[in-house]
Predict the structure.
Amino acid sequence: MNNAASAICTASAVDEYTRYRDDYLRDGYVIIPGFYQGAAFEELVGELDRYVSEVVPTLPDSAAFFQEQGSPESLSQMQHMVDPYFAEFGIREPFVSLAEALMGEPVRVGRPEWFNKPPGTAHPTPPHQDNFYINLDPSPLTMWLALDPVDTENGCLKYLPGTHRDGLRPHTRTRVLGFSQGISDWSDEEAAAQVPACLQPGDLTVHHGDTIHSADCNTTTDRHRRAFALVYHTASAQRNEAAHVRHTATAREQHLGMGLDVD
Ligand SMILES: O=C(O)CCC(=O)C(=O)O
């Protein structure tokens, strides 16, 4: 999870997306089938392929995580995507109008992230709340765009509806690279009550920063589970600096403990 200071985004079609706000506010997430498709989607996929082959080999360990060192196929997460194309991507439509429609005021965007669960790797996403990592008030939202067919077999996101209304829960350190913190008082009943978000490429799910979510391992042998994510926050949001320093230190300790170079 990351978030960088950025300019206020310009939205041009907010009214088209206000119809998603009630579901988002009730459940803490909303799924929008076919949100980003056609030539724009293909361009994004092509740019991601370029970034993986040309930029990732030049990055420090803390910006691109592999499940197995030395295995390019096992790339599981990219964060702080600094390339000019991706640094600017989040100010595009229709993402900005949707963010403003759901949050009800002008927004700023952080740098994109990319998540994968490569086939044949044990890489669960622990139950967590994004704002435990991002530390903003009010809480941000995350847009998660499916790049592959995503289902319960290859590790779709799973949500615990309505949990965005209950504030942040205690988290504790994990051994999962990219998700250094998971909810510590998590119960079997809660795990069973989660709702899977099965998506096709170009479908979008958007979740509130306090909504509890997780994802299981990819149990398939031949299907990746890739997604492109953008975090938006209101232009007026303030960061809890003490909490943020604590979180950054914890993630850094995890990376050092796992033998990664940290910058
Ligand atoms: O892709 C995943 O497994 C987790 C992503 C996530 O937690 C998020 O985008 O907030």
About this structure: Residues 115, 125, 130, 142, 144, 213, 215, 227, 229 surround 2-oxoglutaric acid (CB under 6 Å). The chain has one domain: 14-257.
